[in-house]
Design goal:
- Keywords: Carbohydrate metabolism, Glycosidase, Hydrolase.
- It catalyses: Hydrolysis of terminal non-reducing beta-D-fructofuranoside residues in beta-D-fructofuranosides.
- InterPro entries: 6-hairpin_glycosidase_sf, 6hp_glycosidase-like_sf, Glyco_hydro_100.
- Belongs to the glycosyl hydrolase 100 family.
- About 40% of the residues lie in helices and about 10% in strands.
- The strands form six sheets. It has a four-stranded antiparallel beta sheet.
- Helix 4 crosses helix 20, helix 5 runs parallel beside helix 7 and helix 19 packs across helix 20.
- The radius of gyration is 23 Å and the shape is globular.
- The structure holds alpha-D-glucopyranose (GLC).
- The site of alpha-D-glucopyranose (GLC) has 6 residues, from helix 5.
- Alpha-D-glucopyranose binds next to helix 5.
């Protein structure tokens, strides 16, 4: 960031104006961390000084020194087996076998993994396709095992698909849109293979996947960081691909918020679940993708312009999310006491949230110590639900401050039964029931209470939890969660999700041999075994950004 933009983040010692209670004014307050947490040093900090890694503090997030190859040889057996002190759980071998069975080839090259292998007995729907989001844990497993080729092939293949003209009925989608999934078609007569991609035009609900492009950028950085091969990200087509994805998000419009407005069902939760507007999952992925793009974009003419816009957006998004999406006991109490109908820029309750709209469950759920980013914030609406993916990505991208990251982990520990239960990990908490379920889901029989996206437990989320645990210096939490998963995953045939308040039952319509359940487990295992893998998927706090100053303290100024 240059000096002028730094001014935007402002000088702490400058005098605070009472008339403009916005971000600038708030930051001139002394930092008063609300949570009194005995911070363990995070993995990021320790990794730089103590772990046998070639990274240094300066180089950790620097594109020029992104090289952190895992140094594994490309052998067929999982590298985990070769470790000296590591004693692999017997299901690790089974998991690798299952993961390899799910490989999809296109003209002789592996280009991805199928969503679920065991779909014979059930309706196939689109589970025989390669989903972009589902491939991420597979890709990380292969990278960690020293097999980057498939990841490279996938990145290039999906990039080609981005180049297609995408239409839903007569409406043309934005150029940068990435597919939700693709399928390899074999023509036995002509003996050719072709690819069919789905950008939302075939998906149930016809929603374009906003998360696919973000995952693509995040994966490109993971590949680069893991292999040290800068040449892929530097290719003109990759540079263009990044810019096209971000142009869809950085375009100017009527927005008054830096968060990204989107439709219900545009990410992992791909059915109507009241996850529209400004859902945390998309905002956290957006933030992470912006930061990853920043280290990969070349500073040439077009790149420079894009970099500038990314920096401005990151700055605003960081402030907005840390201030308005963050909820802990104190903040909840502040909202509970909010005045409403405040007009002008001095308003404390900026979005006019009516305290009566706070759901009952949150008062019991919120521990004295801990916090999280809530599901959604928009005018007069706060979705207080806890979503796993968004909170883990907030930690990994350093959208969360170190204090907030620790608080998220504190909450997971304090609410272990609710969020982890007997099978990690709840996709969202709590479930929507009865009348609310009818109205919100449109009576969706797949998303009944404590099932699927509506409070179901998804083993794939284990890798995200593990990464967040390592980053916050709490690997023991991940170990406990992995132990739980190991008692059942293989025996149950790697289900897609589990149902019930404690996640005790194999999901009503869960697919078996769901690839991301398998890969998510392997990635979690490998990261615990060798925490230096974390660097692939984690970004350190941007030291240039200001620490969080709480909005509710603004009147102290
Ligand atoms: C379901 C999930 C979605 C996933 C797809 C393939 O539709 O909701 O997140 O990508 O299955 O596994």
């Amino acid at each position: 960031m240059d000096g002028a933009k730094e001014m935007g983040i402002r000088n702490v010692s400058s005098i605070c104006s009472l008339t403009k209670l916005d971000e600038h004014d708030l930051s001139c307050l002394p930092e008063k961390p609300r949570l009194n947490i005995e911070r363990q040093r995070s993995f990021d900090e320790r990794s730089l000084s103590e772990l046998p890694t070639i990274l240094t503090r300066e180089s950790y997030d620097n594109y020029d020194s992104m090289h952190s190859p895992c140094g594994r040889s490309c052998i067929d057996t999982p590298a985990s087996f070769g470790g000296n002190s590591f004693n692999p759980h017997p299901i690790v071998a089974e998991a690798w076998e299952a993961l390899r069975r799910s490989l999809v080839y296109f003209r002789g090259q592996s280009v991805g993994t199928i969503a679920a292998y065991h779909h014979a007995s059930e309706e196939v729907l689109n589970y025989d396709q390669v989903f972009v989001r589902d491939f991420v844990p597979s890709a990380l497993a292969f990278l960690m095992n020293g097999e980057p080729e498939i990841v490279k092939n996938f990145l290039l293949k999906t990039l080609q698909l981005q180049g297609w003209e995408k239409k839903i009925d007569r409406f043309k989608l934005g150029e940068g849109a990435m597919p939700a999934s693709f399928k390899v078609l074999h023509d036995p007569v002509r003996k050719v293979e072709t690819i069919a991609a789905d950008f939302g035009e075939s998906a149930i609900g016809r929603v374009a996947p906003v998360d696919s492009g973000f995952w693509w950028i995040i994966l490109l950085r993971a590949y680069t960081k893991s292999t040290g091969d800068l040449s892929l990200a530097e290719r003109p087509e990759c540079q263009k691909g990044i810019k096209l994805i971000l142009m869809l998000c950085l375009a100017e419009g009527f927005d008054t918020f830096p968060t990204l407005l989107c439709a219900d069902g545009c990410s992992m939760i791909d059915r109507r679940m009241d996850v529209y507007g400004y859902p945390i999952e998309i905002q956290a992925l957006f933030y992470m993708a912006l930061r990853c793009a920043l280290v990969m974009l070349k500073h040439d003419g077009e790149g420079k312009d894009c970099i500038e816009r990314i920096e401005q957006r990151l700055h605003a998004l960081n402030f907005h999310m840390r201030s308005y999406f963050w909820l802990d006991f104190q903040q909840l109490n502040d909202i509970y006491r909010y005045k409403t109908e405040e007009y002008s820029h001095t308003a404390v309750n900026k979005f006019n949230v009516i305290p009566d709209s706070i759901p009952d469950w949150i008062f019991d759920f919120m521990p004295m110590r801990g916090g999280y980013f809530i599901g959604n914030v928009s005018p007069a609406r706060m979705d207080f639900r806890w979503f796993c993916l968004g909170n883990c990505i907030a930690i990994l991208s350093s959208l969360a401050t170190p204090e907030q990251s620790m608080a998220i982990m504190d909450l997971i520990e304090a609410r272990w039964d609710e969020l982890v239960g007997e099978m990690p990990l709840k996709i969202a908490y709590p479930a929507i029931e009865s009348h609310e379920w009818r109205i919100i889901t449109g009576c969706d029989p797949k998303n009944t209470r404590w099932s699927y996206h509506n409070g179901g437990s998804w083993p794939v989320l284990l890798w995200l939890l593990t990464a967040a645990c390592i980053k916050t210096g709490r690997p023991q939490i991940a170990r406990q969660a992995i132990d739980l998963a190991e008692t059942r995953l293989l025996k149950d045939g790697w289900p897609e999700y589990y149902d019930g308040k404690l996640g005790r039952f194999i999901g009503k319509q869960a697919r078996k041999y769901q690839t991301w359940s398998i890969a998510g487990y392997l990635v979690a295992k490998m990261m615990l075994e060798d925490p230096s893998h974390l660097g692939m998927i984690s970004l350190e706090e941007d030291k240039q950004r200001k620490p969080l100053i709480k909005r509710s303290s603004s009147w102290n100024c």
